Amino acid sequence: MTYKLINDNCFDWMKNREENSITAIVTDPPYGVKEYTEEELKKKRNASGGIWRIPPAFDGRKRSPLPRFSVINDSPLERDNVYNFFIDWGRLAFKVLVPGGHIFIASTPLLSDIVSRALRDAGLERRGEIVRVVKTFRGGDRPKGAEKEFSMTTVIPRGCWEPWGLYRKPLSERTVAKNLKRWKAGALHRKSIDTPFCDLIESGKTPQCERKISNHPSLKPQDFMRILVSAALPLQEGIILDPFCGGGSTIAAAEALGFNSIGVEQDKDFYQMAKNAVPKLSQLYPQSEKLLFEEG
Ligand SMILES: C[S@@+](CC[C@H](N)C(=O)[O-])C[C@H]1O[C@@H](n2cnc3c(N)ncnc32)[C@H](O)[C@@H]1O
């Protein structure tokens, strides 16, 4: 086994972690900060309101609950909470990453600007944004209570993509090549010798067979996560950290590709879920390593 799962608050864990000891962070945090608090999870588990809501079944299919980020977006106080959470987190990420280490961090178009400002203020370099093409079922609704009157309007666009911010801890060496030699970090792994890593990735919903293994509400698909973890280790060596590891999709992807990884999850139920799921998710699609490097 090349991975470790830890049931802890990642802020505490990162505070105690050695400096310059993680090669890359690939993570999907609680975007709006509060949707994964004990209070909101309790409401979700009891199906008693709160930030989680069932998206409209416009095609007649039952949907799983999603957090409502538009609630957060409206209030300056909530925006400050998001900023403060991510600047504190960014400073810890800065500490544990090796110089040149990358962060891939999932977000939402409603909040990614705040996360970006916070991570830059924490000292990290913004290196771009990955567009994961996927229908998120967020947005696209008509004005509440006036759906017929304004039947040809939509309040915000229906989400068809998910932004993943790309950040890097500044290099300690004068050139990328020297940094790669010293820290095995500073660049991204290419898709193939002829094709660099690209920032637009066609993706889909997480397949049912993966959801059956790990029933986390934000489980990411293995095909997408395997592309990210591979890109995050330029020399295919080092340690991947997912400090918000949820149902374990990042750690399973790292394990499938034979990389060392560490996952931290504060919720006991999700931690247990990841413990059970990682060995099974990582064994799915045994050909994917070959495909990742041969497709180009
Ligand atoms: C968006 S989910 C991640 C889902 C994951 N990518 C997957 O595929 O299952 C965020 C996770 O972070 C956890 N979390 C929230 N705050 C945390 C903290 N301070 N430390 C560790 N885990 C935390 C939540 O319990 C939740 O499971």
Automatic annotation (TrEMBL):
Location of the DNA methylase N-4/N-6 domain: 23-275
Species whose genome carries this gene: Veillonella seminalis
PROSITE patterns: N6_MTASE
UniProt keywords, alphabetically: Methyltransferase, Restriction system, Transferase
Entry annotated with the keyword Hydrolase: no
Assigned EC number: 2.1.1.-
GO biological process, any: DNA restriction-modification system
GO CC entries: cytoplasm
Similarity comment text for this entry: Belongs to the N(4)/N(6)-methyltransferase family.
A Pfam family: N6_N4_Mtase
GO terms for MF: DNA binding; N-methyltransferase activity; site-specific DNA-methyltransferase (adenine-specific) activity
Protein origin, superkingdom: Bacteria
Protein name: Methyltransferase
Keyword hit for Transferase: yes
InterPro entries per record: DNA_methylase_N4/N6 (IPR002941), DNA_methylase_N6_adenine_CS (IPR002052), RM_Methyltransferase (IPR001091), SAM-dependent_MTases_sf (IPR029063)
Upper classification of the organism: Bacteria, Bacillati, Bacillota, Negativicutes, Veillonellales
